[in-house]
Records
---
Amino acid sequence: MIAIVIILVIISLLCFFFFWFITIRFLGVNKSSITFLIKICSVICIISIILIPIISSSFFAPIYKQNVSYFRLFWMWFFMLGLIFLILGLRILFLVRKMLKQMKSEGTQEKLKTKGVYVIVRHPTIFSWFVIYLGLSFIFDSLYGVILFPFLFLLLELHCVLKEKYILIKKHEKIYKSYIEKVPYRLISPPYNYLLFIIAFFVFYIGVINRAYIF
């Protein structure tokens, strides 16, 4: 199972770097083949990341001995918390999709998105996938999902930085810089960042308590 997790991590990283190589290399080139490749990279990367907490779930411990329970006696509490995160992430995705559909029908899909959930954070779609991953890691009681959580956060932050630098600022220029001043948070805004910090502390503490069992 560790080998499968490593393979999924490698696939997601390769897709991430390939995505940005194509995006930067063919910046400004409007070809259907390039757009298709970028979409394929995005889909494969998302699927690979989402599969990690599922396949490394402690539910499969009878089959794969490495899939130990991370939360153990605290799992039910984190299951409920994970369910809340999952619903929240899916809700944000729904709101973004709804807005994009409305903008497309109005013919304004090329304009900078600054309304709805974009008033809170600048990259709500990325935030939603981050929350969904966290929710699945809690629900499926995944050791590797929890371990990879901070690395995923850094990867998503890097994605947001690159997207702003190479796409959004170049496309919208002063408008986007003004938007940054109004909405200073890329992924997580207060008070949610404080809440996630508290949750991360408890998750780490549980890992310390269960370290003899986990390792």
---
Amino acid sequence: MLRAFIFDMDGVVTNTAVAHFTCWKEVFDGLLRSRSGDDFGGDDFRDDAPGGDNLGAFTRRDYLDHVDGIPRLAGIRAFLESREIDLPEGDEDDRTPATVRGLGFLKNQCFDRWLAQNEVPTFEDTRALIDVLKANGVTVGIFSASRNANRVIESAGLGGFFDAIVSGDDAEEQNLAAKPDPAMLVETARQLGIEPRETAVVEDALAGVEAGSRGRFALTVGINRQEDHADSQRHALRAHGADLVVRDLRRLLTADGSGLRTVGNLPAVWDRQDELVSQIGSRPLAVFLDYDGTLTPIVRNHRKAHISDKMVEAVAQLAEQCPTAIISGRDLDDVRDRVGLDSVFYAGSHGFDIAGPGGLKMRPEGAEKFLRPIAEAEQDLRRAIEGIDGAEVERKTFSIAVHFRNAAEEDVERLESAVDEVVGRHADLRRSRGKKVLQVEPRAEWNKGKAIEWLLANTRLGERDALPLYIGDDITDEDAFAALADDGISIVVKDGGYITTADYALENSADVGRFLVWLSECVEKQAR
């Protein structure tokens, strides 16, 4: 159960991102212009373009990649390194762009001017979420790498609103490492008196969601407020450790806005049949299904998760009525052999390995580069968990699953530490989690949601403006739910009380089977 939520300030609670970007751009463009003279590309680069070359203007992509959510001086160093610019650190009283500290002073001076002339706005969706949390007895904290944090909070009219505040000044006094180190987030939870395992993190920066993941918080939510490259940012937030990514934090609330949107309080499909039929209307359906926990019950031994003949028949019947795909964390060959239907599409390894009718085969560009680090990590993990009874390493083509369903509860923290240590040695890999399993996956902008988007764009699954429908049972399926957020139907199979962005719920895998039969009948009636 979640007892606390902690929020990053800039870009999550307060809307100062434009001011920060404007000030960073003023400072960095001044530096770049002074170094490049007539070659400066400032007038030729859009603010929302990818990072420019060494002479190009500071862009929004630069902002997101190098300075957003990072302490001022660390962000300056990261940006300068990206442009291969070497400046001395300088002294605290430097006031010119000739040093790192001088640039920091100029940026802060610019933001001070803005703060003196403006009242800081807040995001309505964040206020709505916090109001519901506080009404339900959930404590809330706020953290920021900014040394102006307390001034910003007061300007926004939020003084006394949070149960704990950790600012850039606090981080300096306590020598807290910068994100993606989780130190600042852990300190915020500590001040609330609540363990990270009972605390959710809400962040908009890549370094911030990575900190939430590294800190082993109960839930890390990425808020994606980008307009010009929203899809790229959504996948980047997931690749850096966000469990959920939403465009609006009210998506985490129930329809009536009274509580958190958990698996347990979603409307049951059977109570909303007319609503579903209305949503489908005359549009053709494209159905996507998870395997474990959806088409089969969860079992203690993952090797024994066999699909029943009755379920295979239900999937086959549905595939006759509308294109159907199975999207699984299992290896492609494994899930394809278990289901045994040639009429459906398959995506294994959380979407990295796609196959389908007509000899379809697809792996995302550059996927093979991850095979070597995954192989190295596999050997490291086998050595690291030696001696932990009930823990098992399962190698898949593009990921590694570390199962601990049969491990003792007191060994789980040791297991997580071992996995984190191994992943920390491989920059190309990241850790994610599922039900009693830790996943080691490529740090790439690809996942179940991306695989669904590809299948809709490149196969008959997306023909004739098809309406996608996805059924899954785990936090790993939230990528798929996010992909369908603007146009699609998301259904979660109940198991646990975690927060979800799904629309409806089914009770168990047997309920899934009944729903697939009902869905086939609906599509058949639609075709008459």
---
Amino acid sequence: MQTKQWNVEISITEDDNDDVTTARAVLLADDGTRHESVAHARRNPSDQAVPDIGDELAVGRALSDLSAKLLEDGAEDVARLAGAGSASR
């Protein structure tokens, strides 16, 4: 059995006023393939500043987007291989 390891690195930055949190999620596959997603969370000016909430929202959005990109890439690969198989028959 072959085991593969993919790592996701997440970086979080906040603007000077703690109004906008940005999360960057980078997936590094063991074959060198890199997938990246960036997402933001914006605090309502009338809300109390709670940085952890912005972190959770921004990271969750970045991971959700990364997940969607991976699913799309997989579906495109399947479609491409299915098309190549039917064209060669």
